[in-house]
Amino acid sequence: MKQKYIQKKVAVFDIDGTIFRSSLLRELLENLISAGVFPSRAKEYYAHAYINWLDRRGSYEQYLAGVIGAYERYIKGVQQHVVWDMAHHVMDFHQNRVYKFTRDLVRDLQKKGYYLLAISGSPFDIVDPFARNMGFDKVYGRLFEVDKSERFTGKILYEGMIDHKGQILKRAIAKERLTLKDSIGVGDTDSDISFLKLVDRPIAFNPNIKLYSYAKKKKWDIVVERKDVTYTP
């Protein structure tokens, strides 16, 4: 007699800008620089792009690309436990700096028995403790290789995989025996479209212009949270 498996409903979330009100990678990087693990010149990778973004002369994506570049450049040779310690410090300090809408949605879905899946472009070393602390069942993040001496090599494992979030969701569905029936997805940029297209209820939360335009075209839910107000434009 074949064993019958009950498929759990899935809810998939991006993290940075969707739940966390900033970038986990940025906070980790800034702390590594402040602690002297990374040199201060690492800021040169993104300082100019950051000012341009603040002055609305450049995009957030350009700024974030500089942050990613700095992290990838200086992570090589750093011991894994140093990054883990710093990641937990960042999480402890910032764990409550989340959006109310997505925080409450996660809690509600958890009570309803949903399988909570997090997919983020930030390093797994910071995304995992942050998402696990919120009750997520499975976490995907950018994975950096560690050698036998437990130092980062600077190489990204499965490079490019994290940029195809729809494929990650499909893999999780098959591996964890989940169902897309009544599924929910929440993201904030066009990089999340690939998994939002797969769920029954896609939500564009504080979307960038590309995601906003796509969501309007597809008549997806759009939610904006500003200060103490949450509304649908």
From TrEMBL:
Q: Which Pfam families match?
A: HAD (PF12710)
Q: Which GO terms describe its molecular function?
A: L-phosphoserine phosphatase activity; magnesium ion binding
Q: Which cofactor does it need?
A: Mg(2+)
Q: Which UniProt keywords apply?
A: Amino-acid biosynthesis, Hydrolase, Magnesium, Metal-binding, Serine biosynthesis
Q: Per the record, what are the reactions this protein catalyses?
A: O-phospho-D-serine + H2O = D-serine + phosphate; O-phospho-L-serine + H2O = L-serine + phosphate
Provide one Gene Ontology cellular component.
cytoplasm
Q: Name one GO biological process term.
A: L-serine biosynthetic process
Q: What is its EC number?
A: 3.1.3.3
What is its pathway?
A: Amino-acid biosynthesis; L-serine biosynthesis; L-serine from 3-phospho-D-glycerate: step 3/3
The first-level EC class reads hydrolase
Q: Under what name is this protein listed?
A: phosphoserine phosphatase
Origin species: Candidatus Sungbacteria bacterium RIFCSPLOWO2_01_FULL_47_10
